[in-house]
Amino acid sequence: MKEEFDRQDFDRMCWTMCARKNLDRSNLLISDDDAFKIWCIFNFLCEDHYPLSIVTEEVSSGSPSEVSSGSPSEVSFGSPPEVSSGSGLLPRGFAAEYFLRKLTDSMGGSWVEERFEDYKLELQAQRQSLSAWELITLVASGHFSKGMDRQTLSMGINEVYHELILDGYLMKKGHKRKNWTERWFMLRPTSISYFMGEDLAEKKGHIHLDENCCVEPLPDKEGKKCLFFIKCVEKSFEISASDKKRKQEWIQ
Q: What angle do CA 75, 187, 48 make, to 5 degrees?
């Protein structure tokens, strides 16, 4: 990829073209922007294998299961996410059930296991998979948000989106001059990009995340607090967050 490639603009362009053809907007309880965020979360879970779908085989109630290494588009329903031991910044093993539970929790609702089990059985009887458009329709139909108004549902989607797909200002230590500069960081499933500002006008760097990357907390030093260390094969990065909560969001 060229350095000036803007993933956010690219995602919006892909969404505009794909949604026009695949998404039935009739009877949806959410805005187009909320639908876009669910689509981004779906792609986050499935990474970049086409066609994207979440399969419902290998369902075991309550037990963790991970993404098959042979097919990154296949994400099982039955587990909370597990982070690869190689990197706290490289999410693996996300599940559709986890997303729906997080959404329910963010809206202040109670998870109804029977409702999910009924839907899961229905889905298994049909095609054994869940596409991005079906997930959007499922959430937007209010199936898992009964009793919630549209604003609450929208706020819940936005909260989960920002929790799973992180961005924000962090301080980065320079490699040559060793000075600290503020940059706008964006975390995606396999990379971190950082920019001069949140307008994304000037990209300053890119960190490719793979199984060889790891993240470690660091003690306070040089007048900087809430430090952590991103270690990759080619280069490592010292980062300072604004507070402990923000630090934990980036390293968990």
A: 40
User: Per the omega criterion (within 30 degrees of 0), is the bond before 217 cis?
Assistant: no
Q: What pTM was estimated for this model as a whole?
A: 0.58
- What tens digit of pLDDT does each residue of 80-97 get? 333 332 333 323 334 567
For the chain, the C-alpha Rg in angstroms (whole number) is: 19
Asked if residue 32 lies in contact with residue 38, where contact means CB atoms within 8 angstroms, the answer is no
User: Is the pLDDT score of 179 beyond 60?
Assistant: yes
The span from the CA of 214 to the CA of 86, in Å, is: 5
Q: Which two tokens mark 170?
A: 């962090």
Torsion, Cα 150 153 155 159, to 10 degrees, reads -170
Coil/strand/helix, residue 154? helix
Q: Give the residue from 39, 43, 44, 42 showing the smallest Cα distance to 89.
A: 44
